[in-house]
Amino acid sequence: MEPRRLFSFSAMAAQLSEVDTLVQRILEAGDIESLDHSAIPRIRTPERLAVFAPRAARLRQLAALDNPIAGYLRLMAVLADAQQAVMAGFKAKPPSPELIASAQQHSMPLIPALSGARDPAWRDVLRQLLDKVEAAGPLTPPLEALIGRLRTLDTAALESQADAIFAQRFGEVDPASAPFIVAALQVVWTDLAADIDKREVPYLETLGLCPVCGSHPVASTVRVGGVYDNYRYLQCGLCATEWHMVRSKCSNCDSTKGIAYHAVGSPDVDDATREAESRNAALKAESCDECHTYRKIGIQSKDYDFDPFADDLASLTLDLLMGAEGYRRASPHPWLWPEQADASAEPSGESA
């Protein structure tokens, strides 16, 4: 297989000019900043039974496209299926009115991941997820050993891993166990986020963190259709809440300087082919020369089935190429943790 190439292009010349729209003109960054943001839907809360099943389907779809980590994607699809099954019979303890009022008063997330006050039900959710993954089919010996090890962890060990994951203390996170622990926590926080009244969600000073739980986004989507058409939304890697952020702005440091977009293209092509591949790419990496980080962005008009969580996980080639260009991920993917602390960015906000 020939090596893939990374094609880069500036934000203003390429990203903003190439997003197709039928009824709405493309806006320059300054124009977007000057819009009446009260007219733009700020929050998209998840539909509790419409997160994990579509994610599982997308993971399988991407695995079938000659993906270099196809086996892992199929395993994670099984895990997402398990999340869907558990979610159907699960209800988390909602935040108290006092907690909501305090969060609003202090401009803090409504159900902060780093509060330490987790619903202990997440540990039972984890056990149910492990049961369903085991029941889904034969396990490889390493996976069987991993599930067995997870079952032996006591309450203190599990809570310690959850703390380390949320705080991004990479040296304390077990990369093999983390996806399963995160999956259980995702069930709890997604259920909570699905029931939140969007009008109660406070504005955070740190725009790049989820206003519902304070976690980092996994990627963003320029959506199509309805009131969200042509707007960019970041998606939380924990609770699946989406929040609006203008394009051509770094979601890690809020800078509008040095923003560029990068797409994986075919090797040894002419300029016309390169331009066409860049223009038609549904998935790009949005880089920032101020903080030297990147996050991925999907253009739903190019691929309607784009799922920020699944597509970010499945585009490891783009991650490798961005690393070769000197950029680092703004935050790790919740289901693909680095082996060493220096393999990812330092935390830039309140949570993971």
From TrEMBL:
Residues covered by the FdhE N-terminal domain: 40-203
User: What region holds the FdhE C-terminal domain?
Assistant: 249-336
Q: Which HAMAP family does UniProt cross-reference here?
A: FdeH
Cell compartments where the protein resides: Cytoplasm
Say which domain of life the source belongs to.
Answer: Bacteria
Q: What is its main location?
A: cytoplasm
Keywords of the record, alphabetical order, are: Cytoplasm
Q: What does this protein do?
A: Necessary for formate dehydrogenase activity.
| UniProt GO molecular function | ferric iron binding
The organism of origin for this protein: Paraburkholderia terricola
The protein's name in its UniProt record: Protein FdhE homolog
The UniProt entry's GO CC annotations, sorted and at most eight, read: cytosol
GO BP, sorted A to Z = protein maturation
Q: Start and end of every FdhE central domain?
A: 209-247
Q: PANTHER family from the entry?
A: PROTEIN FDHE
**UniProt similarity note:** Belongs to the FdhE family.
